[in-house]
Design brief:
The protein is of the alpha/beta class. It has one domain (2-221): TIM Barrel (Alpha-Beta Barrel). It has 9 helices and 8 strands. The protein has helices at residues 2-19, 38-46, 57-66, 85-91, 101-111, 140-148, 168-188, 203-209, 218-221, and strands at 28-32, 51-54, 73-76, 94-98, 118-123, 153-159, 194-196, 213-216. The chain has an 8-stranded parallel beta sheet with strand order 7-6-5-4-3-2-1-8. Helix 3 (57-66) links the parallel strand 2 and strand 3. It binds pyridoxal-5'-phosphate. Pyridoxal-5'-phosphate (PLP) binds at residues 32, 34, 55, 77, 161, 199-201, 215-219.
């Protein structure tokens, strides 16, 4: 099941990318394994999936520890309270949900002494009123600048949650805006190469606008109980 699902998603990514003239290799598939077992993750690993994403700090860390003899890359994609930042800095390779300078400073400090910097994405709130997490676009230049000089973080790009309950049209307008901002950020900071956009429900639109990283849970592992 998981194996077939992964094959289907890879195929879908490839088809959509080619259809809009993109190189499918530019797009990384993250398997969102929240609420899924180590056994299920191992099934995905057995067919070559190496990138996993978790939303809850403790749950993620227990899986990271149990799977520590496998070479996997772990992304934190949940909302992060500053009292848990130390654990994310210590165990994860990426954090997609940096939304304040305060959090960035903490992660930077807590990452020091580790061999590699923490890869970070700034979370953008593209639907403004409905979502609580993420910064407004107008706050991006200052936060990006501040993060770019922190030695233990590496600014890789931006992330957004899907806009739900709205027309495709409104979603596409917002996604195009994200793509435009991503391009500007890339032109300013050489370390920027990642637009984390797209989940099981909006993977096609995300790839069409230029997403380089899709975060897929349900379509790989099935619904979460
Ligand atoms: C759960 C989650 C996903 C995956 O959503 P699916 O609809 O299961 O593919 C992606 N991104 C974030 C931030 C999530 O919390």
């Amino acid at each position: 099941m998981i194996k077939t699902n992964l094959q289907n998603i890879h195929q879908k990514i490839t088809m959509t990318a080619l259809r809009c003239g993109r190189d499918p290799k530019e797009i990384t598939l993250l398997a969102v394994s929240k609420k899924k077992t180590v056994r299920e993750i191992e099934q995905a690993v057995s067919v070559g999936q190496n990138f996993f994403a978790e939303n809850y700090v403790q749950e993620g860390i227990s899986k990271i520890k149990l799977l520590s003899d496998v070479k996997l890359v772990w992304h934190f994609i949940g909302s992060l309270q500053s009292n848990k930042s130390r654990l994310v800095a210590k165990y994860f390779d990426w954090c997609h949900t940096v939304n304040s300078l305060h959090l960035a400073h903490r992660l930077n400090f807590q990452r020091s002494g580790m061999p590699n910097p923490l890869n970070v994405l700034i979370q953008i709130n593209i639907s403004n009123e409905e979502q609580k997490s993420g910064i407004l676009l107008k706050e991006l230049p200052n936060l990006a600048q501040a993060i770019s000089v922190l030695p233990c973080l590496i600014l890789r790009g931006i992330m957004a949650m899907p806009i739900l309950h709205h027309s495709n049209e409104r979603q596409l307008v917002a996604y195009h805006k994200m793509a435009e901002v991503f391009q500007q950020l890339k032109d300013t900071y050489p370390s920027v190469d990642t637009l984390s956009l797209g989940t099981s429900s909006d993977i096609d639109s995300a790839i069409i606008v230029g997403s380089t990283m899709v975060r897929v849970g349900t379509a790989i592992f099935g619904t979460r109980g």
